[in-house]
Amino acid sequence: MPRAVALGGAVAVGILTALQARVNGSLGHEMGDGFVAAFVSFSSGFVILVVLSLALPAGRAGLRRLATGVRHGHVPIWMLLGGLAGALTVATQGLTVAIIGVALFTVGVVAGQTVNGLVLDRVGYGPAGVVPLTWGRIIGGAVVLAAVVVLVSSEGTTAVPWWMLLLPFVSGAGIAWQQATNGRLRQAVESPLTATLVNFAGGTAALAIAGGVHGAISGLHVTVPGAGWLYLGGAIGVVYIFLSAALVRHTGVLLLGLGSVVGLLATSVTLDAIWPPESGPNPAIALAGVVVALAGVVIAAARRRQRAGGSADSTSAGSTPRS
């Protein structure tokens, strides 16, 4: 896949992630229960994927390969667990976004994705294998973190509970792991659709358990909102997780995360301008953060020029060390 196309897809993943955060955050706020809202969002996506997987020949073939792989041990159990990180992300959206805003949520996600993306690429966890920690990738990641600092500098976080600041970071680290895990599963079953279905099946089960425990402890007091757009989070998740599973082998974990950062930041700024949160950054600071993040993506994506008399030292995400 051409690098520009892969990066464009990564940015689209970020845009959709920010949109889903706003939708699920609003659903959690309207329902009065973030866990139930997360379950509704994830289960709706699961139903969509079941229908597609049974209706499409490619989906049925992917399910057969999945069953064969699990039966013969070619698809280990850990490859089926990516949905746990997805469940955490959706639950975090429902619990925090309506209070802290999309931009502040994104700040934590960006930081978690960047740090864990570097680690996962270095150890070779993703489907692209070991991606070297070149200076371009390290500096690019650091510049993206600088964008996070730019946005945080205008955030009034003193009144925000510490767990609301921590959860997005943990969620971002989980997203990086989820993208790599789903990419490995997609490679094993040769189907992004099947990998996405497995992700939603696991996430739906996890959220059903979490929601049941939460309801048993705190009681179930849910309002059912009538606005149809509040229920689109699952469908949006289907699209961006499918894209992530298809793209990660072309980009590597870190570059997929960095590209999605641009989409996340730009869209979160737009959404917070339309629905201003209490702790959102002012437009000038938000724009500066987007520009800095874009610079980080460009630095991380750039290839080093071939040295005279030697082979090029590729920094493309998705490349493996040459023997």
From TrEMBL:
InterPro entries to which the protein is assigned, alphabetical: YdcZ (IPR006750)
A Gene Ontology cellular-component term: plasma membrane
Keyword field: Membrane, Transmembrane, Transmembrane helix
Domain of life where this protein originates: Bacteria
Residue ranges of the TM segments: 37-63, 75-92, 98-120, 132-153, 159-177, 197-217, 229-248, 253-271, 283-302
Pfam families documented for this protein: DMT_YdcZ (PF04657)
Protein name: EamA-like transporter family protein
The species this protein was found in: Microbacterium ginsengisoli
